[in-house]
Amino acid sequence: MKQGPGLRIYAIVYLVFLYAPILLLPMFAFNNSRVIAFPLSGFSTQWFVAMWEDEQLFRALRNSMIISSSTAIFATTLGIFAARATTRYRFPAKGGLIALIMLPLVLPEMIVAMSLLVVLLWIGIPLSIWTIILGHILLCTPFAVAILSSAFQSLDKSLEEAAYDLGEGPISTFRLIILPLVMPGIISSLLICFTISLDEFIVAYFLGGTDTPLSAYIYGQFRFPARVPAMLALGTILVMVSILLLSIAEYFRRRGLARTGAKDTGGFL
Amino acid sequence: MNVTLDKTRSDLARSDMIEFQDVHKYYGDYHALRGITATIKEGEFFSLLGPSGCGKTTLLRTIAGFEGISSGAVMIDGKNMARVPANARPTNMVFQSYAIFPHLSVEQNVGFGLRRDPRTSAQKTAAVAEALEMVGLKGFGGRAAHALSGGQRQRVALARALILKPKVLLLDEPLSALDKKMREQMQIELIRLQRQVGITFILVTHDQEEALVMSDRIAVMFEGEIAQLADPETLYRRPNSRKVADFIGTMNFLPARILSETGDVVEVEAQGFGAVTLTAEQCTASGNDSAGAMVGFRPETLTILFDGQTGTDRETMGVVTEVVYYGDMTYYDVRLDGTDMPMRLSMRNVFGRPVLDLGMRTRVAWAPGALVLFR
């Protein structure tokens, strides 16, 4: 089909707008000036060194690791239960319940953060990394459910029946048949939840108390112009780690589809 | 397809393996099984035949334990299965989709059921190899399951089910996913395998030819009920209703009027054939077909008489309205004198004998003994 240049220009502009700012990140991270402006004055790795020597940053990083790993594990576990229940069993108000689980996906994070803060303060739970984890589980579970539902859905029901038929009980069937077949989905869910939690700012900022995670720490550092290039260095590393994690997640999702012989119905990438 | 197989094993010594006692199954308001009562013998090749939605798969799944029943009883080898879960029943199943575990090798699939077996791993390996050889997959043990063809998957599923030496092997439309040639080959192999292992096979199929070829006995099911349970020949020659007759092969029907019925003899006035005397054995039970009395006959029971041929049977005349040439056979549609509808006839072709043309008048021989009275 012949088409005019309009759509092509649109696509190029769109992609430039989307990715050019991210390309600027490493550019200024390796620039030997503390002023974030063109022209670039010279190559330097001093900002990576500055970043490396920042103890507060490492504390924030440690907090983030605890938050993101815990969130990924809890959200994925909840996702397994929900995905299993919705793909295998019929129960009243199923559609409504799924909608409620998926709602945080479209709910403004600001609303989630504010209402959680109000409730936590009212109950009297002190703010800590655990309150952040609570909020992040809420945000990540819909993603886990979406990924795992597709993994559980592509599972042929007669595989389970065959395992029963050959003498296995429900628990050993889950362990020997279901779990290995949905494992790619589980890994993919863990990685995506981890990434979302790592990037998340609003909930982390609202519910963080004195234990600042990485995202809130970076935001705080931007008040000091001298610290900005070091944060760009950190950002460069984070972008690379994020791309790596999402690629691994997508690899496992596709491998899972190939294993069960299902058709690709589209994932996150 | 023309297979002659020895079906002469003695029925006398066999005990009952499966017994359905007035089995009902409801899905909400839907009455899926409507009072199934039947007995399947030990070592029998038994088929559940019917159109989709007739309840044949549901009935099979009540034996396996995947489907509970609403009332009645399912007995296996004299034991009521009401409280026995699927994983404790002496049955194994070959699934329609084969349900080969995609993440395991052929060997691991076949040996899956031996996990709780007390035998040593060397003995288990030998059992797996033996099972694979039995289904013609010797040397395939190390292959990945997802790299197999449809026919090979089928064989793996069979080996996996048979390795546990079940009392009953359940087969849920196992051949429906195969192409015609493969299907015919597997039919013969399944019969051979069943003779070899000697256990009860219960096959679910919608393919009447498959059921006729493979089974010792067939239960024809419609709408959750068994319409007729008989051996293949009885089912073909003496269907007990027009519905069964229509489902199994082709049957021609002509309107008839019952003149008299005395003891074992029924006098009938049939369109195109005139007055015929039938025995009671040729008549279905009164009331099976509410639409009125009809005589029925199979395409091969009428013979076209070529020039000079004389038959010992009775004769009538007809006009050829359709000719379908199949190589070894020719199917003719012939409108018999005194009838409005053409009847389907099949003739084996003889070398050197011409095939009749459309519109030709021909003599047709028919035998009163080949007629069935539906009423």
Mean pLDDT of chain A: 85
Class based on secondary structure composition and strand pairing of chain B = alpha+beta
Q: Distance between termini of chain B?
A: 32 Å
Oligomer: heterodimer
Shape of chain A: globular
Q: Indicate how many domains the architecture of chain B comprises.
A: 2
Helix content of chain B: 10-25%
Query: Largest interface, and how many residues on either side?
Result: A-B, 18 and 25 residues
Query: What general form of chain B does the structure show?
Result: globular
| Cα Rg of chain B | 24 Å
The amount of beta strand of chain A, in percent, is: under 5%
The largest pleated sheet of chain B is described as:
6 strands, mixed
Could you list the spans of chain A in which at least 5 consecutive residues all have pLDDT below 50?
Answer: none
Low-pLDDT regions of chain B: 1-10
Order of helices and strands of chain A: HHHHHHHHHHH
Helical proportion of chain A, percent range:
over 70%
The number of strands of chain A is 0
**Largest beta-sheet details of chain A:** none
The number of helical segments of chain B is 8
Which value, in Å, is the CA radius of gyration of chain A?
Answer: 22 Å
Written account of the structure:
- The complex is a heterodimer of chains A (269) and B (375).
- Chain A contains 11 helices and no strands.
- Chain A has helices at 5-29, 46-52, 55-88, 94-102, 109-123, 129-153, 157-165, 170-199, 202-206, 214-221, 228-260.
- Chain B has 375 residues and is of the alpha+beta class.
- Chain B has 2 domains: 16-237, Rossmann fold (3-Layer(aba) Sandwich); 250-375, Beta Barrel (OB fold (Dihydrolipoamide Acetyltransferase, E2P)), CATH 2.40.50.
- In chain B, helix 3 packs across helix 4.
- Chain B is globular, with a radius of gyration of 24 Å.
